[in-house]
Amino acid sequence: MISRRHFLKQTTVAGSGAILVPNLSFNLYKKPEYGVQLYTFRDELAKDAKQTLKTIADLGIKKIESARSTKGLYYGLSPEGMKKECEALGMKLVSGHVALDDDFESTMEQAVRSGQEYVICSSLPSKGQTVDNYKSVADAFNKAGESCKKLGLKFGYHNHEYEFESHDGQILYDVLMDNTDPELVYMELDLGWVVVSGFDPMDYFKKYPGRFPLWHLKDMDFKEKESTEFGNGDLNIKKIMESQKASGVKHIFIEQEEYTSTPVESMRHNMKFLKKLS
């Protein structure tokens, strides 16, 4: 008998059906230059940001995406300091997770000083799992996108699981997609949460081609709804990687919130896993 995990590994089945991928080899695509979402190293960064950045660089990471912390957007470093540290280590600060709140003007100003390209809203700025709320959020996103564009930045949104709930017969994430301007709002698709929610990323790549320039790549334990090391969860990472062209992805950030050992050991495992795919 085929186990549930083995079956998911082979087909990456979600509630709506199997994930569809092109009949193309992973090797036909340009090898990605993987990045990491720094929330993966949140505790280490809080203790010693500079040393942690060096540790990340030593793992072969070339791109990073920051996340808000108790020490600010850059873990106690100034925007210029963060840029300087990354450049010295051969890394690029591409993106940052932020809040769309009353301090957003300061957030944008700091992002410009850091040299990053994307400013990504990390969670829904207002509560309410209704179509009307998501339309209101979409309006706020379009305005934020306009503000960012004027400063040479790109505004985006990172999903979780709840955006794929439905209200009045509509998938709320689709409401967000349909009411945001593709020229102003760029989507960072968290692949793990999409599939855990019972949906197929390829369906979104087909419906909204080129709308997902950023990914969060994470393996997930479907039962526990927790992230885990690549190959230890229920995602077929190889097949997902084959859908790069369809999604229009430019930056792939590895993210892992839970670990069997330490963040460093988990990331070392993940990098080795990805290397074997190429």
From TrEMBL:
<dbReference type="InterPro" id="IPR050312">
    <property type="entry name" value="IolE/XylAMocC-like"/>
</dbReference>
<feature type="domain" description="Xylose isomerase-like TIM barrel">
    <location>
        <begin position="82"/>
        <end position="277"/>
    </location>
</feature>
<dbReference type="InterPro" id="IPR036237">
    <property type="entry name" value="Xyl_isomerase-like_sf"/>
</dbReference>
<keyword id="KW-0413">Isomerase</keyword>
<dbReference type="Pfam" id="PF01261">
    <property type="entry name" value="AP_endonuc_2"/>
</dbReference>
<dbReference type="InterPro" id="IPR019546">
    <property type="entry name" value="TAT_signal_bac_arc"/>
</dbReference>
<protein>
    <submittedName>
        <fullName>Sugar phosphate isomerase/epimerase</fullName>
    </submittedName>
</protein>
<dbReference type="InterPro" id="IPR013022">
    <property type="entry name" value="Xyl_isomerase-like_TIM-brl"/>
</dbReference>
<dbReference type="GO" id="GO:0016853">
    <property type="term" value="F:isomerase activity"/>
</dbReference>
